[in-house]
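Board notes (copied after class):
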Amino acid sequence: MGLIRHRVKIHIQFHHVLGNIYHESFGHNIDLATNELILWDVPNEAILVRVNNKVPVLGLQLDASELNLLYKDKYNVEVPDSYEHLLLDVIDGDNHLFMRSDELTAAWNILNPLLQEIDKKNIAPELYEPGGRGPFGAYYLWAKHGVHWTED
């Protein structure tokens, strides 16, 4: 919580394909050549796929298209907050969204070595001001992996 905005977004930017025959058609803006999958949970639940496709004409002409499923536009119902949904499931005794015990064991088998390494090396989380954009180190992480920051 404590960030400037409360939102949950998973943004998957696919790698550029080596030897892409369409590369020249995008000119110098390499971002146009990247397909993306974006999953929103908060504030507006949505699934967005951005893909590049060849226009069905003679010659090499490309177009970037979006496939967008915004739940509030598609379904004329009030979409409950994730926590509301989870609490209602608990009250109803519905555990289909919860991890099974074998999944939980597998998750701890993955996380325990990481947590032990953090304790051993005395690694502290990077602090940031409440109401800000998060830790400054996140910008370095994005740059290191070629992720472009967007304000959307």
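Comment from the instructor: The mean pLDDT is 81. The CA atoms of residues 96 and 124 lie 35 Å apart.
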